[in-house]
What we know:
Elements lengths: L1 H30 L3 E10 L10 E6 L4 E6 L6 E6 L2 E10 L2 E11 L5 E6 L9 H25 L10
Parallel strand pairs: 1-7
Antiparallel strand pairs: 1-4, 2-3, 2-5, 5-6
Amino acid sequence: xxxxxxxxxxxxxxxxxxxxxxxxxxxxxxxxxxxxxxxxxxxxxxxxxxxxxxxxxxxxxxxxxxxxxxxxxxxxxxxxxxxxxxxxxxxxxxxxxxxxxxxxxxxxxxxxxxxxxxxxxxxxxxxxxxxxxxxxxxxxxxxxxxxxxxxxxxxxxxxxxx
Length: 162
């Protein structure tokens, strides 16, 4: 009799787990209804063309990444999203870390297009990481040269006054 109870408990647990695995698929299928098309454009403020070297992502209201768009081509790209609140963020990688250049929150029921312009003073945004790498390299080189000079400059003893 104990074996039958164990088998029954195992069957109920397996049915429960199988049902839990199917639920996200059902919820996802329901999200397909009410899709809104949103055009996303990211331009470089200096060149006026598509911002190169940046990563654009669409995030849900909870901050989860819904879609990575990568570099958005000239003229933008369209994404189809279920009705709701979203954010678009534009990031660039510097030393392997994402740096947010721009973000915009929107509601798909009110917005059909998002236009973001990113700028880095007077240089195209794609060259920003290179500029930062060069500045950091110059600072490190200056520190190394300063240390080497201190190590190899001879210290002359000060003569005692008579």
